[in-house]
Specification:
Shape: globular
Protein name: DUF4145 domain-containing protein
Number of strands: 6
Order of helices and strands: HEEEHEEEHHHHH
Strand content: 15-25%
Mean pLDDT: 88
Organism: Nocardioides ginsengisoli
Length: 259
């Protein structure tokens, strides 16, 4: 599972001085990306506001860039994060209690894009290409348009059903709803109840993203990523692990791999 706490934190506002998240490298999937301190560029309007007699630091707004690289010495993949920042009161820390220079301030960074896109989940090599491309599409727009990312994840569910031979249209030409397709897939074999429920949850999150006034956050989309990752893990990897465990139990000991 590639999704981790660091990626989740990139979906939230990051306070200056608290340390940037270290998500998995999208190139080698072994190392982590370490980002340098962001470079701030203040908006022109924000600069002009400093001339106001009542100016306060929390009026500061701007954009930033943060360069990073994979810590794996055999990779060193470069990466860049961009977004917006604003200054506001810092979260209270122990040493703030005795400050005599007024309230402490921090810059708060909101990531809008990371390139190359971060990996949301690691899929087995046997995963159909449309599914892999769909997950990559969601990753590419995750920070710029969370609603669109959720819609892409919903499409991944549809693509999975298609790869499983579940028709998307009726003989008369009308579309079959995702709900009905999931139900059909669920009835196709025993033991599919849990995965079907997970797919349905991702579908609901995707539905919320398709609305023109979608207010989905990055964190909410990442919840859908976790659910979809669990569904694919159970569907693609779980059976193989179960088979290996059964072989070990039957042999009452280690089983040599077949050639």
């Amino acid at each position: 599972m590639v999704f981790d706490v660091a990626l989740g934190r990139l979906g939230a506002v990051i306070e200056e001085g608290t340390g940037w998240p270290r998500p998995f490298c999208p190139h080698c999937l072994a190392g982590h990306l370490r980002f340098d301190e962001p470079v701030q560029v203040e908006h022109g309007e924000s600069k002009r506001a400093r001339q106001d007699d009542y100016w306060e630091p929390e009026w500061i707004r701007g954009v930033f860039t943060a360069s990073g690289a994979c810590e794996n010495p055999e990779c060193e993949q470069p990466a860049v994060a961009t977004g917006t920042y604003e200054v506001d009161y810092a979260k209270k820390r122990p040493h703030d209690e005795y400050t005599e220079s007024g309230p402490p301030y921090s810059a708060f960074y909101s990531v809008k894009q990371v390139y190359p896109p971060l990996v949301l989940m690691r899929l087995p090599e046997t995963t159909p290409e449309p599914i892999q491309e769909g997950v990559e599409r969601a990753a590419a727009v995750l920070f710029t348009d969370p609603g669109l990312a959720a819609t892409a994840l919903r499409l991944v569910v549809e693509q999975f059903l298609t790869s499983e031979g579940i028709a998307a249209t009726r003989p008369t030409g009308g579309f079959i709803s995702a709900d009905d397709r999931i139900k059909t897939w669920k009835k196709g074999a025993t033991g599919r109840d849990r995965v079907a429920d997970l797919l349905l949850a991702v579908k609901w999150i995707g539905n919320a993203g398709t609305h023109s006034l979608s207010t989905l956050t990055v964190s909410e989309v990442l919840k859908g990523v976790e659910i979809l990752d669990e569904a694919f893990h159970a569907q693609f990897i779980g059976p193989d692990i179960d088979a290996r465990a059964k072989a070990v139990n039957d042999a009452r000991g280690p089983v040599s791999p077949t050639t």
